[in-house]
Structures are given as C-alpha cells and as structure tokens.
DNA sequence: ATATGTTTAAGCGTAC
DNA sequence: GTACGCTTAAACATAT
C-alpha cells in the first residue's frame, strides 16, 4: 500500500460552509421545480439525488449558480460527477475512500495492471451519449469505489484533476498519487507502475512545470504546476479531441462485474457509493442533448474530450503534446525555464503579490448577491435574477458564460491584468467546454490544512468563479457590471 | 532503501 | 501512411 504524505498544504472545508451548501442546495432545488430533486438533500445518506439526473450539475455550471458559490463543491464534499452527486451535509465527512472501497471489503485486491483495466466512458453527462453510442458501458461506474474499472482519464488529466482539486498553485508528486488513489479506487489496487506513468507524464508533458523546492523546504521532490503557456496555446484553439476506444472490460475482471448490466432506456449516471442508479427524464435528456450539441459533444464525446477541454483551462492534455519525439535530434531535452506568468497557477508568492491588488472589494456582498441570483443585468443595467434558461444556454442557447476564464484562475488575478486576445475570443467554443467540463472538478482533500482561511478567495479561486468571471458575466449581459464591480476595487 | 525525476523505447489507437 | 497522443516499461540519476 502506498504511503503517501502531502507536504503541500490544502484548504480545509468547514462545517459552516457545509451548512451554507445545504442552503444553497435548497435554493438550487427551488430553481427548477420541473426537474425532480431529491427532497432529502440534507440526508447524510447517499441519495439517488435526482438533482444529477435532472442535470442540476449542469445547471451548476451556469454562471448564476457558479456565482452562487456555496452551490459548488467544497472541500469535503463530493459533487464531482465523477462520483455522482453526493451532497454531504452537516458535519458529516466524506466517506473514506477506503471505507467505501469494495476491494477493501473482501474483494480481491489484484485487479491487475492498469493496462488490463476496463475502460468506460466517464460518468459525466456527456458520457450519456457515449453510452448510447457504445451501448456497453456499465450502467454505473463509480470510480471512487469500483476497483475494476480504470478511469477513462489520461494520466495527464488525472494529474490536472489532482492539481485542480488541490486548490493550490503547485502540488507534490505524492499528493498527486494520493489524490488519485483517494478518488479512483482502481489505482489503489492496481500495479504501482501507474505511478511511473504519472511521473513520466509530469516529466514529459510540456504542460507540467516542475517547481523546485526551496532549499530550506523539507521534503522530497519538488512541486508541479501547469504551464500557463500551453493553456494559452490551447485556448487559442490548438487542441484536438480524441476518441477513446470502445469500452473494454478486462476479461479477468469481467466475471466480477455485476452480471446483467444493461443500459436502461434512460441513461444512467453513477452515484457515489454505487447505491443507486440515476435516470434522466426525457426533458432533461433533451436538455442534455441540446447542451452537448451546443458544446460540440457528440457520440464521441467522452472524458477524453473533457480532458481536451480541460487542456484549455489548465494547459494540459492532448493538444499540448509531450515534450518529446522531435524527429531530430533524438535527444531533445526540454528546458523548463521558469517563467513569470499571469497563470492561474501562480506560486504562493505571486499570488500573495497579486492578492494585494484585490483591495477592499466586498466579496460577501457580491457573493451573496450571486447566491441570490442577482448577478444579472437586465436591459437597464440593473441587477436582476438570471432566468434558469439562461443558465443552460450554450453558444447562444441556454448558457451564459464568461468570455474568458479558466477554472484555475485565481481571484488574485485582477481583471485589468487579463486581456482577452482575439485568438482567445475565437476560442470561445472551446472555452465553453472548458468551463463546463472543469467546473465540476472538485474533490475533497483529506489533508487540507489551510484552516478554511480566506474561504471566499478559495471559492473564487477554485469553484470556477472569480472576479474576472463576474466581470465577464457583466459583459455578457451587455450591462455595465464590470464597471460596477471594478468600482469596488 | 526509497522516492523522485528524466529519458528512451515501443506499441496502440486516432486524426489527418 | 504518417503524425500525434497516450500508455507502459525500463534504465538510470539524484535526493532524502
């Protein structure tokens, strides 16, 4: 078993925040009565939570809900579609991965090497069409507890997920390991060679930058972060999606998979703990289809696509390519020159420095407004609630989105420091997906240590909502919200 | 010894 | 067919 320790520090969720989430959840439910929600969102048990089936998670990607910070996943809460839509409330801590690990409860611990693993389309909504396309994906794959199915994410994606979940600008290798093993049961039992692949990815993938440890910093190895240079490049459209091969079930494991798995007439999504199956109403499916069509997702959309979109946000992924295979000369060492950037992945010092630019902006007021659905401008420039339909419009349909943002962008990036280039503008299609695909990339970090300090900033840093987004939101409504907000700065 | 990091090599699938 | 993206394996070096 891995012996991992995080030498980095992590923010910490708090009970208070969790309570806020409950409130926000109730508000979210009130948003859409047409979509059935679990009326028991406060239940500590894993509910089937129709909120997911009803694509509430999709709604949560919307600007308005994103602005309603508490609705977004917080440390200690599993709302990542990867794990279903579990909503933890009160003081209940997220279930221990190991506690929920079937493989830890009598199942064999030898699922084999990653290579032999089964692939399945990810449980994101967009995977639904993938399900339909391939038609042989298990009805529910809970990667957090299912030790047999290899997550359909590339290692680079996993690394990025870990980085995203860490809420830090840099992350240690051991923390990447830990996050992966904590969140993907498969890797807890797989041959540890996957760690080699992780390291290989970090070293070879141009998107990852090594941040050497300070001389006086104890611990092994350095830190890793994402190279914003490639984020920019990707945002300019230099990325491509790639299909995953059809679902492959490891023959060695196939027998252990519940027999009789069938795709239900209504697509299903995994639920944390695998305690239930989620069905999507025809209405929601229609909505989903519209969404996926609008975002370019099609039957080939899969987590790899998500990956591609994440590339845009985080500067990783397939579009980035590896630091490798230059035809000549054979040995080409990529020098990772340290660079100053306005990256979302700023180092602590950089963030601190930029943080001073934040001024006395009233985050609480703004966020409260956002939570109440007020961050919208009507034709007169007055704040007004955003209609639900607007939340789900993409490319002119249903989702209003910021012009340019990355889920990793920090609140410490000032709007003034963010100039939207034309190429970036032209990458809106991509960015939309980036936004949608990464907004749910949240996961608890058991070793978070930040004590919940600067929770607002954390939220703005990590939930996919930041000042820029808010400003851009204002822009997207042709109002003058930007100036209104900037006036606070 | 172990963890971390780099590099090379090969194979496979996909996109062009 | 070729280039690319990704994975896996392995060797090796360095740091703790």
Automatic annotation (TrEMBL):
InterPro entries: FH_FOXJ1, Fork_head_dom, FOXJ1, TF_fork_head_CS_1, TF_fork_head_CS_2, WH-like_DNA-bd_sf, WH_DNA-bd_sf. Gene3D superfamilies: Winged helix-like DNA-binding domain superfamily/Winged helix DNA-binding domain. GO terms for biological process: cilium assembly; heart jogging; heart looping. One of its GO terms (cellular component) is nucleus. The keyword Chloroplast does not apply. The keyword Transcription applies. It comes from the Eukaryota. GO terms for molecular function: DNA-binding transcription factor activity, RNA polymerase II-specific; RNA polymerase II cis-regulatory region sequence-specific DNA binding. Residues 150-244 form the Fork-head domain. Pfam families: Forkhead. Residues 150-244 bind DNA. Belongs to the FOXJ1 family. This is Fork-head domain-containing protein. The lineage of its organism: Eukaryota, Metazoa, Chordata, Craniata, Vertebrata.
């Amino acid at each position: 078993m891995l012996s991992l320790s995080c030498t980095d520090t992590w923010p910490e969720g708090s009970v208070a925040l969790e309570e806020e989430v409950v409130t926000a959840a109730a508000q979210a439910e009130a948003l859409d009565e047409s979509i059935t929600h679990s009326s028991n969102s406060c239940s500590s048990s894993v509910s089937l939570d129709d909120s997911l089936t009803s694509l509430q998670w999709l709604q949560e990607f919307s600007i308005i809900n994103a602005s309603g910070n508490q609705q977004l996943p917080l440390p200690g809460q599993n709302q990542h579609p990867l794990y279903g839509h579990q909503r933890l409330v009160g003081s209940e801590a997220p279930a221990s991965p190991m506690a929920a690990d079937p493989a830890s409860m009598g199942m064999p611990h030898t699922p084999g090497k990653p290579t032999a693993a089964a692939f399945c389309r990810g449980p994101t909504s967009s995977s639904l069409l993938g399900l339909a396309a391939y038609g042989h994906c298990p009805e529910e794959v809970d990667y957090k507890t299912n030790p047999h199915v290899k997550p359909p994410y590339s290692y680079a994606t996993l690394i990025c997920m870990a980085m995203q979940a860490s809420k830090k600008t840099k992350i240690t290798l051991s923390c990447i390991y830990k996050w992966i093993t904590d969140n993907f049961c498969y890797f807890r039992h797989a041959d540890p060679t996957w760690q080699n692949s992780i390291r290989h990815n970090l070293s070879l993938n141009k998107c990852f930058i090594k941040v050497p440890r300070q001389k006086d910093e104890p611990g092994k190895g350095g830190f890793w972060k994402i190279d914003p240079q490639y984020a920019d490049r990707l945002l300019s459209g230099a990325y491509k999606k790639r299909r995953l091969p059809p679902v492959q079930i490891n023959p060695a494991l196939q027998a252990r998979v519940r027999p009789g798995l069938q795709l239900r007439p209504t697509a299903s999504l995994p639920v944390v703990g695998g305690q239930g199956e989620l069905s999507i109403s025809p209405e929601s499916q229609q909505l989903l289809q519209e969404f996926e069509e609008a975002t370019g997702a099609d039957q080939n959309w899969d987590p790899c696509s998500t990956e591609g979109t994440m590339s845009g946000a985080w500067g990783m992924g397939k579009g980035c390519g590896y630091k490798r295979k230059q035809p000549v000369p054979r040995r080409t060492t990529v020098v990772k020159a340290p660079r100053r950037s306005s990256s979302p992945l700023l180092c602590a010092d950089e963030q601190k420095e930029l943080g001073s630019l934040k001024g006395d902006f009233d985050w609480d007021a703004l966020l409260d407004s956002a939570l109440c659905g007020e961050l919208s401008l009507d034709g007169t420039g007055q704040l007004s609630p955003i209609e639900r339909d607007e939340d789900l419009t993409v490319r002119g349909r249903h989702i209003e989105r910021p012009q340019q943002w990355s889920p990793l962008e920090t609140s410490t990036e000032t709007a003034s420091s963010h100039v939207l280039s034309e190429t970036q503008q032209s990458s809106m299609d991509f960015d939309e997906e980036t936004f949608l695909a990464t907004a749910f990339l949240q996961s608890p970090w058991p070793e978070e240590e930040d004590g919940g300090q600067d929770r607002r900033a954390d939220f703005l840093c990590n939930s996919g909502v930041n000042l820029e987004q808010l400003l851009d939101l204002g822009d997207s409504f042709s109002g003058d919200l930007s100036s209104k907000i900037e006036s606070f700065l």
